[in-house]
User: What shape does this take?
Amino acid sequence: MLQRIIIPPPTCGLDMRVNYNYPESTVVRAGDRLFLSGISAIHPGTGERLHGTLAAEAHQCFQNLSMILGRAQSSLERVVSVHAMIYDRVEYDVLNRVYRQYMPEGPPARTVWSVRLPYAFKVQLDVTAIV
Amino acid sequence: MSLTREVIQPKNPALNASKNLKLPHSPGIRAGDFIYLSGMVSIDPVTGLPSPGSVEHETRTILENMSHMLESAGSSLSRAVKVNVCLADIVLFDTMNGVYREFFPVNPPARTTCGVQLSMGLKVEIEVIALHGEETA
Assistant: This one.
């Protein structure tokens, strides 16, 4: 039977349970698969919310994602699927410009949703990866 | 040898919203160790009808029904690995969390929440991926 393993975040700033009292684990590992909670633009050291453009938030999200995956013996190259959530469809091209910088070769499967996000974040990455 | 794809049915037929509301999805699908449930909304476990109400009421009803659904499939809430929560209005986030955390007191699953438009005047929809079997240790 597959074990369910909670993988702690690489820095205390990225712990949404501690900093934002979210009832969610950063990463749950099941076999070779990693299920990540939604990643937002917060400072990895302090947990402080970053205020800025969608591009700035997206850069921070990818940096946080990279650190979180690294802690879980994975990397951006091992991402399988992404739900990229943005606050407004008009930012689609802006997201893509940042996205390409972090996912240059054989990018993961992806769906972009235009939704409302907690605490008015402009972008959130919902990621599944493999170790 | 390819993985078997098994349709999951709740033991309580009132909770088979897919069938009762004639929707083109299954309540859940098992593929090997993984169980994928369809998005669940607040359904009265006695009448099988949608049960709209406060976000607390809907969240509690959904998670109680989800517990039943997972147990029908040989799993449980403690085996959930990933949850997606959809809210009709994202300002309901904190209120939803208040009830949600009662059901996942330790080592909660990974989770993503967003605000979308929901059907039937409902406020909350929750989908889950869980592991088959019982939690050990």
